[in-house]
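USER:
Working in pairs, take the chain set out below, taking as long as you need, and write a paragraph about the fold.
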Amino acid sequence: MSTAIHPAESHTGKQLSGVFISYSHKDKRWKDRLVTHLVLFQKQGLLDVWDDSRITAGDDWYQEIQQVLGTAQVAVLLVSAHFLASDFVLREEVPRLLERRHAEGLWVIPLVVTPCAWEEIDWLKPMQAELRNNRPLSSLDQLPHR
């Protein structure tokens, strides 16, 4: 069963924007928090948010990820030291997203979630990362860890 994002119209007649979330599994808490905020737009038929939790038993997980990397209209990168150390993210996801960013204008949004050396990464430093007061989102975290 394919879970890929496909451009389609929502029930409102507007085109859905496919959002791919790239993250390290060690940052699952941050991914879950982001999805919580985006679910409102998904329920309104404005976004189709995809992360690897949509892969079901028996699916070819690698092929599913490759499909979505090729069809998403937006990519959100949850940047952390774990993300920057992930071989899979750096080998499989980032090159494809950067290729599409250059060739097709894919909107790639880096969200710096925890302190890391993101400004030292050649492919990342030219992008406008989302920071609040030049601090990662974790520095603003007032919610209890669950």
Observations:
- The domain at 17-140 is CATH 3.40.50.10140 (Rossmann fold).
- The helical segments are 28-43, 61-71, 81-85, 87-104.
